[in-house]
Every structure is written in C-alpha cells, then in structure tokens.
Amino acid sequence: MKELRTALTEQLKRPDGPTQELATLLRKVAREAHDGDIKPEQLIIIFKQLWNSLAESFRPQNADQYELVRQRLVTLCIRAYYAE
C-alpha cells in the first residue's frame, strides 16, 4: 500500500495520464488481489478511497482531468484483475 500511495501521489502531480510506473504497479496489485481472492469490487473501493484521500490534498484546478485519470486507472485495475 505504501508503494501504491507513493505512485498515486506522483500521478496526482501529473494528471495528464497514467504514468507507466503506476500502470505497472496497478497490474501487480490487481493480480495479487485476484490471487488472494479479493473481489474486484473490494479492490476498486480500496483504490478509490486511497485516490480520493490523496486528491483532496491537491485541490485540483481541473477536477475533470483528475476524474478522467481516475477512471482510466480503475479501468486498468479491472482489466488487470481479469487478465489471464
């Protein structure tokens, strides 16, 4: 979680799109969640809570841009969770 928190913080500093580091980490987290029998809904809730708690401290000027990145990251999590 600490590694994910750090990567999300870096992502929030650059809201133009998912960083490669974060995308790789999310795939790893999703695979571990899948292997650990954590339901995808639980994974997404945890991710969104962490994202929202970090995003509050940044007070984004363009909230739509942050939301778009968050949606892309959620999609990445879901795809990684179900990847074979």
Which features characterize this protein?
single chain, 84 residues, mainly alpha, 4 helices, elongated
Unreliable sequence segments: none
Task: Tell me the domain tally.
Answer: 1
Largest sheet: none
Structural class by helix and strand composition:
mainly alpha
Strand content: under 5%
Nearest-angstrom radius of gyration? 12 Å
Count of extended strands: 0
Task: Report the mean per-residue pLDDT as an integer.
Answer: 86
**Which geometry do the CA atoms define?**
elongated
Distance between the termini: 23 Å
The secondary-structure element order is: HHHH
Oligomer: single chain
- Helix % is over 70%
Number of contiguous helices: 4
Any overview of this molecule?
The protein is an all-alpha fold. The protein has one domain. Helix content is 80%, strand content 0%. The chain has 4 helices and no strands. It has helices spanning 2-13, 20-35, 40-58, 63-82.
SSE arrangement:
Elements: H1 2-13, H2 20-35, H3 40-58, H4 63-82
